[in-house]
Amino acid sequence: MSHPFRMSAGTVFGRTLSRFKANLGLAALAFALVFLGAQAVLGHEFKVGDLDIEHPWSRATPAGAKVAGGYFTIVNKGSTPDRLLSISSDVSEKAELHQMGVKDGVMTMRPVDGGLEVPAGGKVALAPGGYHLMFIGLKRQPKQGEKFAATLTFEKAGTVNVEFAVEGMGEMGGMDDHAN
Asked: Is 7 a residue whose pLDDT tops 90?
């Protein structure tokens, strides 16, 4: 008579193999979720014609603020230049393209007339301290962790709807390359 708690080697191996398969399946599922999550963060990109709009972002604003900045990189994969002509968004009464610079030791900011050229095969970064968008007459305060929509209009590529990810007040765009 065999002992009621004794198992054969085949039974032990079978159970171990079943557990291994179950754990392998869970590990594969976890890896897939992490990979998809990373793609969602890294994939914050929009396309229109030959242009890629990479990582549109803004900063959260304090209560009562009337303006917010907008930043992203435009990559032109085409063989002809294009031009960013206008921006609109429901978050503000109007939006303008601005350039920040230093003249005679004084920081200046002025609207860019005639749009912003994006060279063929090149890129233009809208970043703190340089070219950037100004959302003027905010209708609500952008809050960290949310997104807001905007429409960019280009001379050749046409219009594209994008979403600006709102980061913390002191952030530089989530990744160093977007701040340089």
From this structure: no
How does DSSP assign the chain, residue by residue?
---TT---HHHHHHHHHHHHHHHHHHHHHHHHHHHHHHHHHHT-EEEETTEEEEEEEEE---TT--EEEEEEEEEE-SSS-EEEEEEEETTEEEEEEEEEEEETTEEEEEEPTT-EEE-TT-EEEE-TTSEEEEEEEESS---TT-EEEEEEEETTTEEEEEEEEEE-TT--SSSHHHH-
| pLDDT at res. 101 | 86
**Average of per-residue pLDDT across 120-125:** 98
Answer yes or no: is pLDDT of 64 > 60: yes
